[in-house]
Structures are given as structure tokens and as C-alpha cells.
TrEMBL record:
InterPro entries: Bact_response_regulator, CheY-like_superfamily, Sig_transdc_resp-reg_receiver
GO biological process, one term: phosphorelay signal transduction system
Keyword Metal-binding belongs to the record: no
Protein name: Response regulator
Entry-annotated residues carrying 4-aspartylphosphate: D73
């Protein structure tokens, strides 16, 4: 049993070291800010930026093969973040379980209804992406798996 626990611990540590990041937002400036902030926080991070939500969905469905943090905007012209999440719900469970989704928005409003509809969304954050958000995300992951 102790060996299994150690094995699980090693897998989680490895997963944390290999986190990928995605940003889906139609705003090029915000994507650049996110990219710079993530690189500053995790120099070895692989970061994918998508201006079109449809391309982000295609990438998730076909190429996401390890834990990935997704920062998703809500207000986009071709497809809203909520429409994006509706399509994401149709994906296979093995694809969905790899994503850790955070809404990153400039909209100042309550999202209580959406929180109930999309309980898998980890948190709704206000733009721009801040180092504190990344630290909180990492701490949450560590606490979830008792890594701290």
C-alpha cells in the first residue's frame, strides 16, 4: 500500500512538472500578457494561444494528452466562452479529465447561474492574468493531492 501511495505521489509530481497551458481569447494583447505571465511563473511551460475558440476546441479534442490549464474568455465574437463549454461537455471523459478550466474575463458581473451549469470550471478570474492566480492555482492542485 505504501508503495502504491508513493507511486501515485510520483505521478502527481510528474504531472505538475508537465502542465501545459492554453489561452482561448480573441484579444491578442491579453494572450500576450497571459503568455508572458505564465512563462515568468513556469519557464518550462508549453503554452498554446488561440484567438478562435473553434480552433481551441479542435486542439483539445485532438491533441491534449496531459494535464492542461485552460484560461478561457467569456466574450468572444464567433463563440462565447459558455458556448465553448457546451461543446466541451460533449468530449470523451478521458479528454475532459485532463483540463483544468479557469474563466478569465473582463466582464464585471455575477456568474452564479453559470457556476451551477459548469461546475467543472475551477474559478472565474478577472483580467489580466496575475501571478497570484497562478500561485493560487498551484496551491489548489497541491492541496488537492496533499503535496504541500
Amino acid at each position: 500500500m505504501e508503495q502504491n501511495l508513493q507511486s501515485t505521489y510520483n505521478i502527481i509530481i510528474k504531472a505538475m512538472d508537465t502542465f501545459n497551458y492554453m489561452v482561448v481569447d480573441d484579444d491578442r494583447t491579453n494572450n500576450l500578457i497571459c503568455q508572458l505571465m505564465i512563462q515568468k511563473f513556469d519557464a518550462s511551460a508549453e503554452i498554446k494561444l488561440f484567438l478562435k475558440p473553434e480552433e481551441g476546441l479542435e486542439y483539445i479534442e485532438n491533441y491534449v494528452d496531459k494535464p492542461t490549464v485552460l484560461f478561457l474568455d467569456v466574450n468572444m465574437p464567433t463563440m462565447s466562452g459558455w458556448e465553448f463549454l457546451d461543446q466541451f461537455l460533449e468530449f470523451k471523459p478521458e479528454v475532459k479529465e485532463k483540463l483544468h478550466i479557469y474563466i478569465l474575463t473582463s466582464a464585471i458581473q455575477s456568474f452564479e447561474k453559470e457556476k451551477e451549469t459548469y461546475p467543472f470550471v475551477k474559478k472565474i478570474l478577472s483580467k489580466p492574468l496575475k501571478k497570484e492566480y497562478l500561485i493560487e492555482m498551484k496551491n489548489s492542485f497541491e492541496n488537492k493531492y496533499n503535496l504541500s
